[in-house]
């Protein structure tokens, strides 16, 4: 039996890992192996809400959203299949004076980097989305290019892309660690089936990335938290082709069209972090009441389905993309970290493209990634940066 050798090993077959393997093959990597401890799409990638937005809190994250939207639009031509992107427009609602002030400042920043975004008065917001209550908010920012994808269709799209570019996918094959030379240089990846010889590795893993990092001798400040998604019963108000999605940013509640009803999602920053797929009915009911105040037509509207998934988060809500750095400050040459920190549908393709670029070439043209590395965190996982346009997550991590 010959030696198991790869130009690149990708750990994790979620959205980031799946698309990264495809991009790497398209960029010339001859043999790409993807390790997945379960089955493709069994994690958060197939349980997401599918929201994709260009509106973000920093110029670099704005570009991640724009790049991903452009990629979703090009998929049919590139692949013959797609992730089901629908342009709906997205409204980030302000319900307090502080949220309005910060929102207007974000709009100014986003416009300065070329994003077509504007501030809506409460009246303009209701005109664009007639299901929105006329009171209880102060309007919000709006970008017409934002939209959503179908998460399950996205898993299918990157699975087909991997297959067509002959990525070597190994399901039910967990990553067990790195093999390094005495001088610390990467020489392989350990699996239950033996060592894969390689000089390049991309570590993904979504909410399990912290565990993956430990196996590699790294401290990656990524936590795991419950995220809940609900789809309402159908209603004539939602049986339309286009209606802007809305994000009640202060409460971490968002909603969009789905199957003739309304899909709405939320997270609870007050609960303990950690893996969870059970439904927290108390918090769901509280958010249901909040939704009914902002979208009155949902009051009394039944629930068609509900699910919970575990998603990841970082202390500053920014992605982590860059070289592997050990707790003592040593860089492991050839190892790249890549996570969209709970924004896999929104930033995943761009993060995957960047990860493939860094792994193969050491640089990327997608956006400036100098602030996305592990080196921005101190020993307690604190960062000097922050992206405010995110769901609220617990302030601590699960250990």
Write structural notes for this entry.
Helices cover 27% and strands 25% of the residues. The mean pLDDT is 95. The protein has a domain at 87-146 and 224-313: D-Amino Acid Oxidase, Chain A, domain 2 (2-Layer Sandwich). It has 399 residues and is an alpha+beta fold. It contains 8 helices and 20 strands.
List keywords for this structure.
399 residues, globular, single chain, six-stranded mixed β-sheet, D-Amino Acid Oxidase, Chain A, domain 2, 20 strands, alpha+beta
- State the helical fraction: 25-40%
| Strand proportion | 25-35%
Rg over alpha carbons: 21 Å
Second CATH tier, the architecture of the domain at 87-146 and 224-313: 2-Layer Sandwich
The level 1 CATH classification of the domain at 87-146 and 224-313 is Alpha Beta
Task: Spell out the blueprint of helices and strands.
Layout: E1 8-11, H1 15-26, E2 32-36, E3 51-52, H2 59-79, E4 86-87, E5 90-93, H3 97-112, E6 117-120, H4 122-128, E7 140-143, E8 147-148, H5 151-164, E9 168-171, E10 177-180, E11 186-191, E12 194-197, E13 201-203, H6 209-215, E14 223-232, E15 245-248, E16 253-258, E17 261-266, H7 281-294, E18 303-313, E19 320-325, E20 331-339, H8 344-361
Parallel strand pairs: 1-2, 1-13, 2-9, 5-15, 13-20
Antiparallel strand pairs: 3-8, 4-8, 5-7, 6-7, 10-11, 11-12, 14-17, 14-18, 15-16, 16-17, 19-20
Helix pairs in contact: 1-5, 1-8, 2-8
């Amino acid at each position: 039996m010959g030696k198991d050798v790869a130009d690149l090993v990708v750990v994790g077959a979620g959205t980031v890992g799946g698309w990264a393997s495809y991009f790497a093959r398209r960029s010339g990597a001859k043999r790409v192996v993807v390790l997945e401890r379960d089955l493709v799409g069994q994690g958060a990638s197939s349980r997401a809400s599918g929201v994709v937005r260009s509106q973000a809190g920093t110029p670099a994250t704005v570009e991640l959203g724009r790049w991903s939207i452009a990629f979703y639009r090009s998929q049919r031509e590139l692949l013959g299949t797609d992730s089901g992107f629908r342009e709906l427009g997205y409204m980030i609602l302000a319900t307090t004076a502080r949220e309005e002030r910060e929102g207007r400042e974000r709009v100014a920043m986003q416009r300065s980097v070329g994003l077509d975004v504007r501030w809506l008065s409460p009246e303009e917001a209701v005109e664009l989305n007639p299901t929105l209550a006329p009171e209880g908010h102060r309007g919000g920012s709006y970008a017409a290019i934002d939209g959503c994808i179908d998460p399950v269709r996205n898993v299918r799209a990157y699975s087909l892309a991997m297959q067509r570019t002959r990525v070597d996918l190994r399901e039910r094959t967990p990553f067990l660690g790195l093999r390094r030379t005495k001088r610390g240089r990467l020489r392989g990846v350990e699996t239950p089936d033996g060592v894969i010889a390689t000089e390049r590795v991309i570590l993904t893993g979504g909410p399990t990335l912290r565990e993956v990092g430990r196996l590699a001798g790294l401290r990656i400040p990524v936590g795991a938290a419950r995220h809940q998604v609900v789809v309402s019963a159908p209603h004539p108000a939602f049986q339309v082709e286009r209606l802007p999605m809305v994000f009640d940013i202060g409460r971490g509640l968002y909603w969009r069209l789905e199957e003739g009803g309304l899909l709405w999602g939320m997270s609870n920053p007050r609960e303990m972090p950690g893996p969870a797929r059970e439904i927290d009915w108390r918090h769901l009911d509280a958010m249901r009441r909040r939704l009914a105040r902002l979208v009155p037509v949902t009051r009394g509207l039944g629930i068609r389905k509900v699910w919970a998934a575990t998603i990841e988060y970082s202390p500053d809500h920014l992605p982590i993309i860059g070289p592997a750095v050990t707790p003592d400050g040593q860089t492991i040459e050839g190892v790249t970290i890549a996570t969209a920190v709970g924004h896999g549908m929104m930033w995943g393709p761009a993060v995957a493209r960047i990860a493939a670029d860094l792994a193969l070439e050491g640089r990327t043209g997608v956006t400036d990634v100098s602030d996305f590395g592990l080196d921005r965190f101190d020993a307690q996982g604190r960062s000097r940066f922050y992206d405010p346009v995110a769901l609220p997550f617990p302030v601590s991590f699960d250990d």
